[in-house]
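Worked Example 4.2. Consider the chain below.
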Amino acid sequence: MAGERGTADPVEKVEKTAPGGAPRGRRTVVAALMLGMALAALDVTVVSTAVPQIVGDLGGFSAFSWVFAGYLLAVTVTLPVYGKLADTIGRKPVLVIGIGVFLIGSLLCATAWNMTSLIAFRIIQGLGGGALQGTVQTIAADLYPAEQRPKIQARLSSVWAGSAVTGPAIGGAVAEYADWRWIFLLNLPVGAVALWLIVRHLHEPRREKVPATVDWPGALALFGSGALLITALVQGGVAWPWLSTPSLALFAGGAAMVAVTMVVERRATDPIIPGWVWRRRTIAAVNLSFGALGVLMIAPNVFIPTYGQSVLGLDPTRAGFVLTVMLLSWPVSAALSGRVYQRIGFRLTAAIGAALTSLVLGSFFFLPHPGEPWHPALIMLLLGGALGLFQLPLLIGVQSSVLHSERGTATASVFFCRQIGQTVGAALFGALANAVLASRLGDGDADSVGRAVNDPSALPPDAADRLRRAVDAAVEYVFLGAAAAAAAALLVLLFVASRGFPEPSDEAGETSKTSFSKI
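Applying the procedure from the previous section yields the following structure tokens:
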């Protein structure tokens, strides 16, 4: 694992003079980063828990995948843009702008009057959300040398655990006792505190005035190709048959836009994702693995709360806690993964995690019907442990293999690929679930799922049982698809990734210059 050598780091100077443990200034910055990460974490757990209530109010169960797919599409396109800006104008302004846009989008989501408006405002929210994941991780890597990064990454992972505990509880309580719009308004105070701490306590050295060139044509082309392909996946088999004229036209248009994107990127002076990201075997393999990780994460995050409510008959709060246990075991496993990869390496540790992930996801298919709540909860607990071994070693390995001046771009590329995976996964698994529901319930009955979950007593016993079995089958097929994605990641790690993660070729003067204010 690459060390941090060269010129003295201001962070280390302050730390040596601070009495005992980490200095308060650094702890404050880390707290701000954790709050910024909490915005994304709470968004996943709270919104997922309240999906049935949102659909019950706004309608359109067949379009609910766009609530996630639209957000993820916007995050995906902006991630590399923010990564490039973080390496040129600085991490701090990028994170401040991103949080601001995210909060504006959250406020707009709370005012949505139908499913179309909610999807549009979620896209705006995603335009800011692209700055949260990559930039927070980059700042964390700047503040800590390589040997200490597992500690800070474990803390950031713990945010997902804390959000997992509070998110479903808050989302369920809001869904049961208040209006679902409050789930978006909750982002405002959290984001405001994070902004205040970052503006006041995070400081970066003055940078040379270098023009911040952004490949906007490439970003727009990528957004267009993604929008066309996702529309084809989400609406195919639901709004129109798969082999109909609209479906074929969208797929053809998406393929053409992909070709246009490739041409634009080849001619770009500074492409949205530099070519060296894909020419380096290590980074390319990690990017592909994170893409598969994004695909498989849609299965638990989006479908487990609905499964708990519609199949197991749980209320929204308890259904959300079925998902919670995954996010409780994940940071524990991530914190312990450092001991594993220090012995056997990043690649083998992640490969073991990917193999276990595939097995755990595949076991969902064998759950009995009707089952007990602890059945899926146990699977989620094991899944969190497997994912901790899978994700963290790859992220730290990539960040340790590049220079400081490349870290923002490299980190953004990793999360960019994960977001592509999540975007494709949301569309693909949404289409798969809709297709299974349509085959089991008949055409035109998919929208009744949201209303039935919101008010189960509205259905007679036979119809309710038929609905439960249809949703059960849909979620089972989704988890099988997620298991296949994890298996694909395992193959990439075994046959594409290099055996060792290389160190930067020139580390002189590349230690972090990011600092913080003492309190």
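The CA atoms of residues 99 and 128 lie 6 Å apart. The first strand starts at residue 202 and ends at 203. Compare this with Example 4.1 before moving on.
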